[in-house]
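As a warm-up, study this chain.
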Amino acid sequence: MNTNSGAKDGASSHWNVAFLVRDYPENLRTVGPWHFNGRIDEAFLAPLRQLDSERTHILEFLAHYDAARFTWFGLQVPGRERLDALSEAHHRLEGMIDGVAVCNAHIKPVVSDLAWIAPEAEADLRLVVFRRQNWADRAGSAESAAKWDSRQDQLRMRIVRFYSFAIDQHSRSQTPLARQLRHSLRMFRHGQHSGSWGVEFICKFCALEGLVCGPTKDNKFKLLSRRLGALLPGPATAAMISQLWNFRNAAVHTAQAFDAGCLDEGAPLGVHIEEIEYLFVAALVFTLQHIDAADDVSQLWKNSDPSSLPEFTRWRRPDDTNVR
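Now compare it with the structure written out below.
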């Protein structure tokens, strides 16, 4: 196998793509006209274990595991560009793993960041890195960086107050409002660490709903619109909440929360997570401001003055400081 073959994008309408998967169940290995999966041996893995330190992701993936735990999973997919083919193949592989989850609850297959790819007419596969996108801070100006750093410093000062509730040492740490605060922050964190844009979107929206609506089951959209609109007044906030609510409904009620290649009918949720974070931080700071005077979520929003919200919570992440 030649891993240095440099096939050009746009040269083929079909591509052969393969991934290395750990812990894919042997009793679900299948072969068809457009896919195969099968065992590999240590001779296959040995060169990968020798990759330099810049490839730490594959070294961590392989670790000390025996070759018997790995499967080489190949697919033939359409795609005008190499990245299109990689994305589509990865979506289809994830679909196979979706099926694993139903009948093998204790098994969690993991896909490597490495992929092998070539146009269908070429015998040699090129070894490439293919991984999930993430946020990266990239300040376009000193002014943007300084303003965002100031916002983060002020937020950290407020978060410190939460810790007395987190360790159950505040005199009001067992009020319904304090418990909701702890639930919401935990849900927010699990979404952030999920490794999935769809799961992150759902978790962070749930965290926001909890702080703004509490246990209320009816008219949540009206509550979100009214209460967040009072915190962050203006038509932009109303439009944002309306759009996020529609995305939330599709994600929660029809499971359209994931990029899914040819199956993809839902909105790309990852790019909207920053909007949820913006609303959540405002609701969080408002809650921490007034938690001593309110027992539950309803009382918080009924009796507390939304105009008291610090100005830094109204700052959006500058356009030149983030890329996804």
